[in-house]
């Protein structure tokens, strides 16, 4: 993909706090989260919700009662019946895909003002009937007499009834190679020799950085990025609630490996959390900026999608970001800030190792030598998904939003956001402040 | 015919349409009933396959024409007017072919009786479709067969729930209780009416228990219902519900058979002062409604500042009525309880989960105050502090749209003092709601000396959008309602100081007809608020004494603030005061308690704070619940002399 032929601006953005799943359906549906974040964002715009040309929402697991959740939310936000709304799905990068779809329509001249973002309410992922139960229901429909029904009832497959399919576990398992996402992270740890201690130390740092950003204002409620959401029972959710102020390597060391049980290194503590959340950005063409007198915070300069071995999916950021760097003649540390979504500590650390690795860079990226060492003081400066959680569809939009707000806050120029994607994909976006 | 027309279609169905000449709503005037009766004769002669009665208006039939009713001079005239409706509905019932009422919108009183005269009723499934017998609220009863036929159709339990309260039911509930044969959406409305009429299904049979309640258990049903009624209304104040039960028990709801029984005859009710007073209030309510017609104002976005109980409920009511509303307060934690209260209100009132969701989506918590810049109307509902309000309006004026209406919900401050903070003081109007906002009908519209007149008109139109009753009041301490309640409560506290038992005070005023005695009212409002309001009114030179009553001071000093603290004049348990039996008191206590109320209402009239005495009466009945059957305090005062 070539660099963009005309500017695509980001006017503003906002997201909900990311709300940790508590082993039961959370207080909000995906539509609720996206509506609440969106209405707070739209309230501070100069234009009306009806001025959008389209609304695009990334969602990896829309609920069955709002499968085109993008359209549902557009209507709930008061964009009006005439503004089309749609939903895109690229697993963990669904939110970034929504941005890219908006960018493409702006580049094509089909849209000028786009609301794009991502959402997932993973806590509400359904339990499904196993096949044996589905068949039992189907046969029950054919039973005519009370006697037939009673006889059929006696055949109820109790085992299947009590062992529903957990949709989220299916979603986190690669259908091609049959690995859990955490097992693909174990692959990277193995490949690059990343230790449990390194993973845990990285995770503690993620928590510490989020705490500092909440206290310092960047991730405070109403601080420009995070907007409080409200349930019907009198609770306000103002902050990302997965972060642990008491996180320490000692505490993390106590956790057991989850994916390769007993003998692995990836634990719930050094993985991203299962979480509900939504994030939005307002994208605008030059013309829309002029028409509405907007003051953009930045531009999306370039984007890239890459494919790789599904069993190594965590290296997706390396494969997607590297071509962008090459296209723009940038070295690894030329962007002043980097956001790499923290699906797993081992996965982010694996990316850094891959860039340092001559062989990997030559064989997998077609470079002449290693790209170098990414300065970690510019990476995920306000923490990441290990502390915040990873509401799959929302994360790609969140890192682009946070990167732009970070550039603005620090008066920096350029940043890169990259994300790994279950199934063996990577996505990246190069952004600039304006 | 002026009001009715009919034609027979190719399937042999006659469609009889009510289209009251020169009016937007169908009501039964004398000539409309006479025409109907004639039309039924003509249609019967045609021997059609069936008859459908429908309305050409947005509503089916609102009932008898109350304007015509009040022109009736004597009980005999009233009886004769009633006889026409009684006969017409019977004539309809006796037709030898299937008849169907096609009901859209209101179907009230005589309109419902016409529908009951049909063999079938098909309702348009829409929130606007409502069935009700509001007669009891006017002090009379449905005497065009309503009382006779409704219990037989839906069973006594559901019937008396409507007959004794005037409560309306929507299309879905009407279907559930068996009042209508079908409740269907517009797309199949006409087809359903046609098919039901042509198919003429057998009528629904009541369940056994309901049939027993119509027959051998009738006496038991009546005595149980009487107990329920007695909890809410005394027979000497409100004879109509008792008359309804008696007329049904003894005469099966036949007004002709009971015409000489003083316990339920139309004559007795017609001549009872309560009936005239309730009809008076009906017209006063209409008058308040018409006060909202002075301006076109349809705010698409309202911004409310202050998410306390008052501000939060104002915002909720706006959202419930379809208005986008931003609710501002200083933190999410302060906004969350308002969202919860709104959710409970929407679930109770809107029921449908999509409508609840949409109303909640329209209610936007707004810590940053970004909503001010977009709003058509900004309502301030923060705590009662002049400096804080002035500072707030200075900021609001700087960010609000130049054409936005600025309003304060202050109850004790002078509007002009707040408006002084504005560059353009003409922009500020008072919109004073009462607690609890979703239930209280009255909204005082306050104009300061400099308030632009069209602003008050817009504020009144806004109150109508919320289905409230606007009352224009001049900017003076306590406006109308609080000014009159203040001395009344202070006086009751002084009685307490004199050693009179609070239960006796409350019982006396409840016997007078107040919905709640003054002590319980004070506990409900909050004793700290009563104390502060009393001081404020005394300081501003309204009536009242500068020294607060001892009982009040002591309670507040102890932190016994009333319902909210669990202890005030009474101990409160689960939202209810724990009361001892009221001691017997001498008859003069009533006078002593109500006198300050009446004196203050007269003073408001003398000072021209509200345009006329009728509006003062309306304001005090709808704002304080002053015994409705007495027709308002000034009316009561005049009639007492």
In short:
Helix content of chain A is 38%, strand content 18%. Chain A is of the alpha+beta class and 434 residues long. Chain A has a domain at 181-223 and 301-427: Thiolase/Chalcone synthase (Peroxisomal Thiolase, Chain A, domain 1).
Instruction: Point out poorly predicted stretches of chain A.
Output: none
Name given to the CATH homologous superfamily of the largest domain in chain B: 2-enoyl-CoA Hydratase, Chain A, domain 1
Mean pLDDT of chain B: 94
Strand order of the largest sheet of chain B: 12-11-10-13-14-15-16-17
Main sheet properties of chain A: 10 strands, mixed
Multimerization state: heterodimer
Overall radius of gyration of chain A = 22 Å
Overall morphology of chain B: globular
SSE class of chain B: alpha/beta
- Quick one: how many beta strands of chain A? 14
Known CATH architecture of the largest domain in chain B: Alpha-Beta Complex
Count of DSSP H/I helices of chain A = 16
Overview of the structural elements:
The complex is a heterodimer of chains A (434) and B (641). Chain A is of the alpha+beta class and 434 residues long. Helices cover 38% and strands 18% of the residues of chain A. Chain A has 16 helices and 14 strands. Chain A has helices spanning 30-43, 69-76, 94-107, 131-142, 146-153, 158-162, 167-171, 181-192, 196-216, 249-253, 286-292, 316-327, 345-356, 358-365, 385-388, 392-409, and strands at residues 8-15, 19-20, 54-58, 85-88, 113-121, 127-128, 165-166, 229-230, 236-237, 275-285, 298-307, 337-340, 414-421, 425-433. In chain A, the strands form three sheets. In chain A, strands 1, 2, 3, 4, 5, 10, 11, 12, 13 and 14 form a ten-stranded mixed beta sheet that branches. A two-stranded antiparallel sheet of chain A has the order 6-7. The two termini of chain A are 23 Å apart. The model of chain A has no long low-confidence stretch (mean pLDDT 96). Chain B folds into three domains: 4-206, 2-enoyl-CoA Hydratase, Chain A, domain 1; 294-474, 3-Layer(aba) Sandwich (Rossmann fold); 481-608, N-(1-d-carboxylethyl)-l-norvaline Dehydrogenase, domain 2. Chain B is 49% helix and 13% strand. In chain B, the strands form four sheets. Chain B has an eight-stranded mixed beta sheet with strand order 12-11-10-13-14-15-16-17, with helices on both faces. In chain B, helix 15 (332-349) runs antiparallel to helix 16 and helix 20 crosses helix 23 (527-539). Chain B is globular and about 80 Å long. The chains are: A alpha+beta (434), B alpha/beta (641). Chains A and B meet through helix 1 and strand 9 of A and helix 15 and helix 16 of B.
